[in-house]
Amino acid sequence: MFDKSSEAMGRKELAALQGERLAKLVETLYKKVPFYKKKMDSAGVGPKDVRKIEDITKLPLTTKDEMREVYPYGLLAVDKKEIVEIHTSTGTTGKPVVDAYTRADVDLWGEVMARTLGMGDTTRDDTVHNAYGYGLFTGGLGVHYGAQKIGAIVLPISGGNTKRQLMMLKDFGGTVLTCTPSYSLLLAEIGREEKYDFSQLKLRVGLFGAEFWSEGMRKEIEEKLSLKALDIYGLTEIIGPGVASECLEQNGLHIFEDVFYPEIIDPETGKRLPAGEKGELVVTTLTKEGTPVLRYRTRDITHFLTGQCACGRTHVRMHRLLGRTDDMLIIRGVNVFPSQIENVLMKIEGVEPQYQILVDRKGALDSVEVRVEMNETIFSDEMKNLAKMEKDIESALYSTLNIHTVVKLVEPKSIPRSEGKAKRVVDKRSL
Amino acid sequence: MNIKQIAVFLENKKGRLAEVTRALASAGVNIRALSLAETTDFGILRLIVNDPDQALASLKTSGFVAQVTDVIAIEVEDKPGGLARILEVCNKNDINIEYMYAFVEKRVSNAIVIFKIDDHEQAHRVLKENGIPIVTSDVLKNL
Questions:
Q1: For A266-354, where are the E strands, in sequence order?
Q2: Residues on chain B touching A394 (C-beta within 8 angstroms)
Q3: pLDDT of residue A43
Q4: ipTM score of complex
Q5: CATH number assigned to the domain covering A329-427
Q6: How many domains does chain B have?
């Protein structure tokens, strides 16, 4: 554990600390950020209403769209000369959201990423092979700062050039791998072609995030890369990676709630849900200075896990992400998350996590085609076996999703590989 | 007694068949018989070649999904009713034929047909009892 006093703090003490920090945050936001003052005023709440952490539900929620409207500097809570670094979301769907860090914020980021790396028992004896992209994207630098804080060696290899990555992984003896889960599989695939024996490499643990992945994919990664795979979580709007991470128990992600306060709400009504119920994750940054965020709606769907974790950390755990409110496909009126499709595929013997979902509209009807790559395990010389494989996958999908899909077996490597986030859904409908 | 067949998965895309045959040609593999089964989306190419191990290795290097399966090569009299007789024997003995295709070369005056059958042991026994000759891989190599 990197910071036992914070990560294993007593629950009572933690709640008191959260309340104290929230009160101070609300005061600052009300005074310094017109964006939040306006929101609080129209909700009829102010700093005097917030004394303890439970008061948080009185405060308004913040959406990504609202934050975009005040691009680029509308969320700043300090003088611009205090800012030392800026990251933004990708902005693929409009203007990006800006995360501006003071020196203390960069330090906080290093701290929570050191805790994240510490989830995999990373120490200064480790070498972190960091294949997250460096740049505006927060993955690369987040891991970098965390590794520096620990004093581990960090190899800032960033994404791409997979053959060179493999060579350096071997030559520098990387023990901790950080990248997207889909890129780890690409490393495994090219590694196999290039005759690397992963069981002979020094890799011990991998911290994978920035995209959705399933338990089945975890098994696959662990087998192929011969390491323990942990799920990490974060988002640019909050700080980047370092919001939550799995420990070696691999049973839910601990949220660093002394600094990032989590809630689960009903995405329809915005009302807070009782612990354990599934809904949208909302996060408040309790100590951030540059661009603090109040009750940010992440659009990620999850639920809290109850009970103590065997690792000794007291911070609440959330289930690995179940989907996103905005990833949700509405197909013939049925809500479908790509994660559900992946879960079904991974339960079928021999199917590898290389798939793509194509949604189209023929006439008035939505059609879903699920492309699954052929491999030696599921191949057969008899047509009836392959036809049966397609039918079996279709009926497994139907029993989970309640919609008909067309499964198409395709040649290996015909689905584009990604070095960053995998593109699993192609929606060709123009709605 | 069985002979080795190579099966290759092919998407129904332009040029894929040419790529398979090019890969085999580059590896110096000679195709002796082939059959293609297809749906609208994909196909299974089945091949009898002079060197199955070499063929499999070269296809895998080229990124194809391929596997070796056992089939039986049967000599069929090259005259009306030649094939019918064999199929009747199979039918009478409950031998289920998954698929079959004919060989390019002839052996003396007989044709050679490749059969994929569920139960090879039973098939061998029945064929022997009925005096239907099967062709071994050694013989095929020397055709």
A1: 279-285, 296-302, 304-305, 317-318, 323-324, 329-331, 334-336
A2: none
A3: 95
A4: 0.85
A5: 3.30.300.30
A6: 2
